[in-house]
Amino acid sequence: MFVTVLLLLVTLCAQRGNGEERAEAQRPGHVSVVIVGGTGDLAKKYLWQGFFELYVNQVSSGNTFSFYGGGLSPADAATPVLFEILKAVSCSKNVSQDRCALLKDQYLRLAQYRQLKSLEDYQELAKHIEQELQQEGITEAGRLFYLSVPAFAYADVSEKINNSCRPTNGAWLRVVLEKPFGHDFRSAQVLASQLGSCLKDEEMYRIDHYLGKQVVAKILPFRIENKKFLDPIWNKHHIERVEIVMKETLDVKGRIPFYDQYGVIRDVLQNHMTEVMTLLTMRLPMNLSSSEEVLQNKLQIFSSMLPLGKSQAVVGQYQAYKTAVQQELNKTKDHVCLTPTFAAVLAHIDDAQYEGVPILLISGKMLDERVGYARILFKNDIFCLQNHNSVHCKPKQVVFYFGHGSLKYPAILVSKNLFKPVLMDGEWKEVTEPTDVNILGLPISDYYVQTPTEQREAYSELISHIFAGRKNSFISTENLLASWGLWTPLLNSLANSFPRIYPGGADNGDLLDIRVKGKDIGYNSEVVIISPDQMGDMSAKGFQVMQGKFRGADMVSAWTEELVERLAADIQEAAEAAVHQGGVFHLALSGGSTPLALFHRLALHHFSFPWRNTHVWMVDERCVPLTEMDSNFHGMHDHLLQHVRIPYYNIHPMPVQLNQRLCVEEDGGALLYEKEVSKFVNGSSFHFVLLGVGYDSHTASLFPGSKVDEFGESLVALTESPVKPHQRMSLTFSAINRARTVALLVMGKGKHELITQLSRVKDNPDKWPVTGVKPADGRLVWYIDYDALLG
Ligand code: BG6
């Protein structure tokens, strides 16, 4: 079908814009574009328009195209729908009416609808593409599949593409995916591995449409161009705070089935706003077009971030949300719905450049205005005695204005009391016309303002990048997982939090104003509006911490978040008492996944905890190099130690690697650690030992059948685990039971059965190792969350 149009198109290559190195390197030829979900909302609103713009720009490039809208409906029903959408595409201002009509006509003739439901449908599509290529005798450049379908269908569609639609002869395959990419770290990891089994990383283009926004895409170039002005001030000594704000006026009516499972943090903070934050703070790459370097610099920011916990966030929900949920999800009136539609989060990057600089990420639906921006507010140490209106005394700021709001166009604004920025490349212009607008506390006349000469939709921009194979505007797997790694603990900790209910629009008044208090954030006003029916049966759960007895020892129980908070507070209390008494606190920490939540919590006790006087010891270690993910020390480092100010010489990793080998008896690693304990710890009696319990009731690395008696008086021993890595080094019961306090932390529904069993069995450390924990002169406390205790 594309023959006639093809003849019109094959002309000599035209010039292409800057940075399209990859596009030039790729051979021209025929490109098949397939939008799976081609009649859906996104396709209708942005994608067909974006591909039309691509087509118009490529008309004289030597490439030819065919476009397929795919969907589950049969072709006879969906074809008219597709063509209605296609007819609505438009040309930019600089294309004449006649030419526009011609291009649109071509575009329509190159497009067709295809049912894409079964594997056979995909096979048919591939056959069709190949037949046309053969008939026309043209070379294939590549195939671009845009998956505009719900995320649950990604794995299935990718598998079908992999099985039937891969091009041959060196042509490329690109598969474009839209968020949501999972709803937490685990699910993102599962999805990534499912997709990874069908598609190579370089074939996947994960879209975050914010990276296609002109202002967002210019953050790095702006920082580079203005390096000489920014270098001296882009740091903790000069930046007062960073704000990344995305206010929306709309509600989420019609999107509830999606939104109610996600909420504002997953919907926009984890992706759009996090991306903006990394672009603002990452180390500048030497080579901006190196996606690898950009990614590595971004990842560095993630690894330097302080963990986010409940005290770093406030959440809200607009009043009408609940009714919308009842209607759209068919819920009864007493349905409890805690999904936040508003969130303000306080983040910190714990490195030499940004340490202590508050980074606020704020977004919400049903707010008073629609506006999106990132502002870097600088400290102003000038005090104007008489003329408060003098430019020196006004806010000093750089604003990346994404659009909407009072300015109406995207722009980068630099307050005139900072510096005059370099004018960006030809696609940007300076705005000098006077307007009577005020942007974030300053009249526009107090700024140097630059804006794109032509406004382009984010999707159109990204589609051209996909076509050019430019990967640095897309989200790599590592980037995605790093971001979920940051947000998942916060999402978990907020799971039972009641959002503050707000009326919506201008009526919100100052209800959502926030206040930063050191490392914590809170609402400025104390009013908490929760209607009684919002509480529903959640109220029955209660949130208090409960005290009791378990196996004859003390027990503290609560919901996970409160439990961890309580344990962290108890450790801090023990630390303060020990330091007060003897100037030092010896803390032995267990490995595994249970303590991670505690590590996050302790990392937040950044300033108040006596870290300087604390020695951190290990309860156990796996016989792997410390640099491996499996290593307990590695986990402890990433989740706790790197975030607190503890002297290096107070940290005592277990010497599992000696003489370039792992845990060999004659290397005497266990004995070495024992000597270190005896040397530093008074009477080898730790002040506090934190233990977990495995499903088989092992604790530390003392497993059932370990014959613990054989360790005699040794404090440290090499042990064997039934699971990999099998070899371990562990404190023995002799060491553990000398401690002043031993805490046993047990969390999660999965441990309920174990807890039930443990409540009945007699002491038998060979079979139930944890029953061997019996501090001789110290205190044992069980910290069991409600899930583990009550199932
Ligand atoms: C989307 C979110 O990713 O971004 C929406 O799912 C949100 O909830 C939208 O409204 C905002 O994008 P923009 O471009 O309008 O700022």
Automatic annotation (TrEMBL):
This is Hexose-6-phosphate dehydrogenase (glucose 1-dehydrogenase). Pathway: Carbohydrate degradation; pentose phosphate pathway. Keywords: Carbohydrate metabolism, Glucose metabolism, NADP, Oxidoreductase, Signal. It holds the Pfam family Glucosamine_iso. The lineage of its organism: Eukaryota, Metazoa, Chordata, Craniata, Vertebrata. Residues 560-782 form the Glucosamine/galactosamine-6-phosphate isomerase domain. GO terms for cellular component: endoplasmic reticulum. Residues 1-19 form the signal peptide. It comes from Perca flavescens (American yellow perch).
